[in-house]
Design goal:
Layout lengths: L3 H22 L3 H28 L5 H30 L1 H22 L4
Length: about 120
């Protein structure tokens, strides 16, 4: 392993933050395509690490842990979409996208610190 799980979540959070900020600040469509691809890869770094942890852990068994993980992930996606809609309505697109990017940075830092506890 080059980065390990803690390195993946840290780099994934940093990359998500950078790509979200570039998406908000660079108005050129080819750059947006590159940012979208980068967001996909960096998001996968976070998602894949958590999914792996879910299959490794769980006192009730890996199936229960994966079901709980999937449920939490789906609820998080729904809450994130609702939060982004509210943020865009209150603050417009650019500051909302930048704030969500900062949120991914915080998430990556938190996951790096707490990954051993999961």
């Amino acid at each position: 392993m080059v980065f390990g799980q803690r390195g993946l979540v840290l780099r994934g959070g940093i990359a998500c933050c950078v790509f979200f900020m570039l998406t908000a600040l660079v108005p050129v469509w080819p750059a947006m395509m590159a940012c979208t691809i980068g967001l996909g890869f960096s998001f996968y770094m976070l998602h894949n690490t958590l999914q792996t942890k879910a299959t490794e852990n769980g006192a009730a068994g890996p199936r229960t842990a994966v079901a709980m993980y999937s449920s939490a992930w789906a609820l998080g996606q729904a809450a994130g979409a609702a939060a982004m809609g509210l943020a865009v309505g209150l603050f417009d697109y650019r500051p909302s996208i930048i704030a969500f990017g900062a949120g991914y940075l915080v998430l990556g830092l938190w996951m790096r610190r707490n990954l051993g506890k999961l």
